[in-house]
Specification:
The radius of gyration is 17 Å and the shape is globular. By secondary structure, it is mainly β. A hairpin with a 5-residue loop joins strand 5 and strand 6. The protein is built from 1 helix and 12 strands; from the N terminus they run H-E-E-E-E-E-E-E-E-E-E-E-E. The strands form 3 sheets. Strands 1, 2, 4, 7, 8 and 10 form a 6-stranded antiparallel β-sheet that branches. A 4-stranded antiparallel β-sheet has the order 3-9-5-6, with no helix packed on it.
């Protein structure tokens, strides 16, 4: 921890770690990488994609519903290339209550995908006066 600032690993241990990986086959279509959770925001700290099979298709990493784009792998990126998108210690927030999605323009591009990030509660939760449920505002 530099000057009291949290590290990337610290944020993933304080909040819910949503880091993961996926082997992307040439036939893989649009894929939800992290599920949405009402009242929570996903923060992406890093995306790494290693291309194993080049194709004339692009790949975008985004919030699922609002399509807020974080990063794009261009069409025909080249075989055996690595694409790294580093969003810093705190990461880039997606739209609240939305899934983190890999969106492909068409099947064909293949490789190994890794991402780092965390999910934290950003909505305000309250219990109704009747105790019949909870709502995020």
């Amino acid at each position: 921890m530099a000057n009291g600032a949290p590290t990337t690993d610290m944020l993933r241990s304080i909040y819910q770690n949503i880091s993961g990986s996926l082997v992307v086959a040439a036939a893989t279509g649009d894929t939800d990488l992290v599920a949405a959770k009402t009242g929570y925001t996903i923060y992406i700290q890093k995306i790494i994609f290693n291309v194993t099979t080049d194709a004339a298709q692009s790949m975008t990493f985004q919030s699922k519903t609002s399509a807020l784009e974080l990063a794009t792998i261009p069409a025909s990126p080249g075989d055996n290339t690595e694409h790294v998108f580093d969003f810093g210690t705190e990461g880039m927030p997606l739209t609240e209550s939305e899934a983190f999605q890999m969106n492909v323009s068409a099947a064909g591009l293949a490789g190994v995908l890794m991402w780092e990030g965390y999910r934290k509660q950003t909505g305000i939760e309250y219990i109704s006066a009747t105790g019949t449920g909870q709502t995020f505002i």
